[in-house]
Fold:
Amino acid sequence: MSSGSGRANRDKLKEKMDAFPAKCRRAGLKVTPQRMAVYKALIESNQHPSAEMVFHKTREVIPNISLDTVNRTLLTLAEIRTAFIVEGSGDVKRFDGVLETHQHFKCLKCRRIVDFHYKPFDKITVPKNIGRKFTVLKTTVYLEGICDLCRKRVDK
Structure:
C-alpha cells in the first residue's frame, strides 16, 4: 500500500470518528468514551469482527470494559445504522463499519468475510410480488464459497 492510500485511509477514519458524536446525538444517545472506543475499534478493523474481537481491541484503551457492554454497543450502532450486522449461517454475529455500498463473500472453510463491490449488484430489482407484499428497505448480496487462501491450501 502506498503512503498516499495509507494517508487517505487515516483521513477517512478521522472523518468517521469526527462525525460519530453527531450521529449519536441525533439518535438520542450520549457520547461516552466506551461508545467512542468500540466504534473506533470497529472502523479500524480490516475484518468483520465479532463482539469478542472488538472487546479485546477496546480493552487496550478501556481495560475495565465488559464484553456485554461491547456487544450491546455494537447492537446499538447497528440500530442507528452506523454499523451493519453481517451474519453467517449459525455463526457468531460479525459487524461491519463500512457503510458504503458493497457486498460480502464468506468462506465456508475459514469463515473469513471479504468485502467486494460489483456495481450491477447495487441495483437489484425486487420482484413485484415481494414489493406488493412487503416494504423492502435494503437488499444485500452475500456470496458463500471457498476463498482464495483456502483454495491455495487445497491446491498444494
Observations:
- The beta strands are 84-86, 94-96, 103-107, 113-116, 142-145.
- The radius of gyration is 18 Å.
- The chain has a mean pLDDT of 90.
